[in-house]
Amino acid sequence: MLKVTDLQSSYKGLVAIQGISLEVGQGEIVAVVGSNGAGKSTLLKSIAGWVKPDRGGVSFKGTDLLKLPAHQISRTGVALVPEGRRLFPKLSVRDNLMLGGYTKAKGAEREAPLEFIFSLFPRLSERLDQQAETLSGGEQQMLAIGRALMGQPSLLMLDEPSQGIMPKLVDELLVAVQRIRDRGTTVLLVEQRVAECLDVADRAYVLQTGRVALSGTSSEVAADDGVRRAYLGI
Ligand code: ATP
């Protein structure tokens, strides 16, 4: 479904990712883990068109994404929930959700994902009129994911959804990620909580200073000595 080939992106000449190749198959949850600054966010932003790569390829369902600007990439069915969530802070939960569906036709089709989103995150349905900035960190993350789902993406990319969220909610979020996949949306998940993330992912890539240091099934990656020492505290 998604094929990234030899991708390099840099900021003002400083290379952030170099020679990254990875694949995500339809219906998978694929994790990307790695220490701070390894290039995880840059990778997702490069796929979504928020950062323009220097070289390499990104193909999504056969479409060359590097030829498209970000707003057209999202129309191909690729959604990114960035770190820090980027909600509209002054707008209500309802309006944030509706803006997520803006590329869809008005009316029933646009509102179709709401039922599933509210079943994932019942809390959102109880807070439709609340301003986004007054939500708790966990609720804001739910809203950011809900907003992305309003666009009915076929690939959902999540950048550190657990950031700033209490441990109990992290498990809830990861269960939601599995339900999103089970309903047909493929997931590319960047996470700092490596153990929890490997529990829900099918496969994983470990990034180190902008390169893929290791990849495999989640159990293979979780069994790797280096990963156990660096990320799993074993
Ligand atoms: P973290 O887990 O801390 O978010 P990350 O693995 O997501 O890290 P990136 O945010 O992709 O890593 O950063 C990769 C490298 O690119 C880092 O050295 C970072 O300082 C640099 N970088 C990221 N964004 C920018 C930017 N807007 N301008 C300049 N350098 C940047």
TrEMBL record:
GO terms for molecular function: ATP binding; ATP hydrolysis activity; branched-chain amino acid transmembrane transporter activity. It holds the Pfam family ABC_tran. Keywords: Amino-acid transport, ATP-binding, Nucleotide-binding, Transport. SMART domains: AAA (SM00382). Gene3D superfamilies: P-loop containing nucleotide triphosphate hydrolases (3.40.50.300). Residues 2-234 form the ABC transporter domain. InterPro entries: AAA+_ATPase (IPR003593), ABC_transporter-like_ATP-bd (IPR003439), ABC_transporter-like_CS (IPR017871), BCAA_Transport_ATP-bd_LivF (IPR052156), P-loop_NTPase (IPR027417). GO terms for biological process: L-amino acid transport. Belongs to the ABC transporter superfamily. This is ABC transporter ATP-binding protein. The lineage of its organism: Bacteria, Pseudomonadati, Pseudomonadota, Alphaproteobacteria, Rhodospirillales.
